[in-house]
User: Fold these one by one.
Assistant:
Number 1:
Amino acid sequence: MDLEKLSEELNNKKVEAVLEKESNLYRILGPKFIGRLVGRTREKCGTLQYKVVALTILTAEYITYQIPTDDIIFIKEIFM
């Protein structure tokens, strides 16, 4: 899953993220998490390369969660 490209496409859109069972956020949020993708955190992994390490999702209660990309199984846009 190319999160760099995917996060650009889904920026500021309503998304559903499915989390891994072993993650800490799975115990807090449950298996599926719905919110608006509002940002990403990138880390430098070379001289000119960056890697997405976390996605920031805003909930309906205006609480933001920064979810590590290792905890996300897949993410997709939902329409309501």
Note: Helices lie at 3-10, 24-29.
Number 2:
Amino acid sequence: MSLICIENGRDVIFGETLMAATRPGGKIFSALSPEVIDSIPETERKYQPSQPGEGGVHIHLATSDINWNGAYTVVDFALGEFFFSISEETAVRYLPNFVGRFPATA
């Protein structure tokens, strides 16, 4: 099964930088395509992790295996190094599907 970007619904192709979104302190994460990451302005990115309970979303590098169709696969999809975080307001604007599926917890 291919890794599908939660925001645009497309397969994340092997060789593209694989990124994942997660909540601070969260254990669940979702794949993001490079186009989605590129749409988040540099000015909105914070290079310090948010603390649990602060809201927002962490963006991490991720790893995975390759699927038969040339996309990354859900097999061995793993969260990697922290890359940047965004505020809850920015997440609502640029990651609405992720925010809707995984709401912030207080």
Note: The chain has a mean pLDDT of 92.
Number 3:
Amino acid sequence: MNKRESKETEAALRDFSVLIQRRIKEDLNFWKHRNPAEAKGREMAYRSCLFELNEALSNHGLTMGDMGLGGYEVPDTDVLE
């Protein structure tokens, strides 16, 4: 991969990281107000997906930090505003 491709990949991963975090928060916030039980189920599903992503990345020698998601935790719907 040349420098240009590397920079484009890094930019795409940063954009993905911001987008996925925003979408998760918006989705959980929507469901928290509409149906708290559904919000809790979605929270658990997102946590599971991120766990699976972390496992897949580890198998390829990558980390969540490489994806721009280092230290990211799915918001707890009990404290989400």
Note: Residues 3-34 form the longest helix (32 residues).
